[in-house]
Amino acid sequence: MWFFLSLGLMAFNFSDFVERLLVYFPERELIADPLKIGRVFIEDVFQTKDGRKLYGWWIEHPQEKASLLFFHGNAGNISHRLDKIKILHETGVSIFIFDYSGFGKSEGTPSEQNLYQDGLAAYDYLINQRKKDPKNILFYGESLGCAVALEVATQNPVAGIILESPFVSLKEMARAHYPFLAFLAGDKFNNIEKIGKIDVPKLFIHSKNDEIIPFSQGLKLYENSPDSKQHLWLDRGSHNDAFFLNAHDYQNTLANYLKLL
């Protein structure tokens, strides 16, 4: 009995190791704020259910078409998304972007479960502090943030989800970059298991030249998603610059997507 228990604990610890190796690259220092891109904002502090303080920016749009909850990727912090915020804001959405535990000013350390709790707290912030109707809330997942967006959407109503460079699971990411570690990745960030449970309009965005999250993973999620879906497959750009090289396409596609909600 103790032998099998020890094996289970070893597998759990190795799974956590793979998660830390592949996933989190936070930065604490904020390099700028939305004033740099000419946007008025409110910095708000909110808490997870277990008491971690998280920081985020609320950037309202005067002719708001929807409220967009932005789940950023695995590196940097909210201040590294200013150019993207500007482009998205120009489509007519108010934006709430926040930092996960251990990123920017937010307390705690990152982990899969902490990120999920962070995302749930950010959703509650929009509902309770900003008094937003779930029928007018959009999720925008960026890379790792797609996993958080999908988890929150399995537990809460939302008008739609935009997934930029989503991945199938941590195991599939390990298989793409560290094949010898894939069997240790466990069942973490199992997005393929969740995608079929969320029947709201989805917009998938992925570069065919993504060198970090292979395009095949975004395509697999798209194919396994319920029929209410659109896609924007990009021929230009890699993981980190496709958004900016195709900004006009992003804006047009998002504008058309908003009309369908």
- What proportion strand? 15-25%
- What's the assembly state of these chains? single chain
Gap from first CA to last CA: 54 Å
Q: What is the CATH class name?
A: Alpha Beta
* Percent helix range: 25-40%
Radius of gyration: 18 Å
Number of continuous helical runs: 9
Which architecture name does CATH use? Answer: 3-Layer(aba) Sandwich
Secondary structure elements and their pairing?
Elements: H1 2-22, E1 25-26, E2 42-47, E3 53-59, E4 66-71, E5 75-76, H2 82-89, E6 93-98, H3 112-128, E7 137-142, H4 144-155, E8 160-164, H5 170-177, H6 191-195, E9 202-207, H7 215-223, E10 229-234, H8 242-245, H9 247-260
Written account of the structure:
This protein is of the alpha/beta class. It has helices spanning 2-22, 82-89, 112-128, 144-155, 170-177, 191-195, 215-223, 242-245, 247-260; strands at 25-26, 42-47, 53-59, 66-71, 75-76, 93-98, 137-142, 160-164, 202-207, 229-234. It is built from nine helices and ten strands. An eight-stranded mixed sheet has the order 2-3-6-4-7-8-9-10, sandwiched between helices. Helix 4 (144-155) links the parallel strand 7 and strand 8. Helix 3 (112-128) packs across helix 4. The longest helix has 21 residues, at 2-22. It is globular and about 50 Å long. The N and C termini lie far apart (54 Å). 41% of the residues are buried. Mean pLDDT is 91; it is low at 1-12.
